[in-house]
Amino acid sequence: EYAWDHPEVRPIGRPLPYFVALPTTAGTGSEVGRSAVVSDDETHVKKIVFSPRLLAKCVFADPELTFDLPPAITAATGMDALTHNIESYLSPEYHPLCDGIALEGVRIAARALPIAFRDGRNLQARSDMLMSSMMGAIAFQKDLGAVHSCAHALSTVADLHHGLANGIMIDHVMRFNLPAATAKMAELARVAGVSGAGAMAEQEAAKAFIAWLAKMKADLGIPATLSAMTAKRPVTRADIPALVDVAINDTCHKTNPRPCTRQDFERMFAAAI
């Protein structure tokens, strides 16, 4: 009854215990979130509770707490942070403050994530990724997009790590978004430091941004496609109907820059397999 999508959602009426948040990954940014997620162990469906009462009273973002994250988890959580910043900036909702935070979050992650991946005890890179993660969580007050709808479907159907799912899907979804977000993607290319982006035409720069994302994935050891995964069972075309059922009912794509139909999700998943 407390889930945000319940027809008669109940507010949290009582004071909650005082709590302090200490993030130990640089990805979701939940330390500054006003939501809690409850995941069903059997269906893997996530239910979300929203309330200002869920905000931490104080946050200590200590980069040394992330020093021992394995490279694969650094990559996956880092791609989650990067995706939050990118999708919130591309959301058509109006919130210039979030846009500014998201662009800076992308700028920081573009430089810091590869360093944190290679050298987990690099204090500056770990600090920067904690900030990018936090900024992404603040920026997506503006909401997210189809990458997250796809990732939520992959977590539900294939029990795939959320950040890894975002990392695999992001360039495939951005190719779909290109016609509706060319100017913003060109700006993201410049912010991310894509070589020569400042001198490129918008269309060229936007395509260069997508190519940069694909290279970032490769550099971080994130599979280019769902079928290339080795740790879990590969996702196959037989999974597409179930994935589409979850993705189309997920609310994140409602603020995707390009509207998504069932057929669009079918094509995105097919391209990612």
Structural key phrases:
globular; mainly alpha; 273 residues; 5% strand; single chain; two-stranded antiparallel ribbon; 51% helix
Number of helices: 9
Main sheet characteristics: 2 strands, parallel
Structural class: mainly alpha
Distance, first to last CA: 37 Å
- DSSP strand tally: 4
- pLDDT averaged residue by residue: 94
Side by side, the strands of the main sheet go: 1-4
Into which percentage range does the β-strand content fall?
Answer: 5-15%
- Tell me roughly what share of residues is in helical segments: 40-55%
Radius of gyration: 18 Å
Q: What oligomeric state is this?
A: single chain
Instruction: Indicate the low-confidence ranges by residue numbers.
Output: none
What is the 3D form?
globular
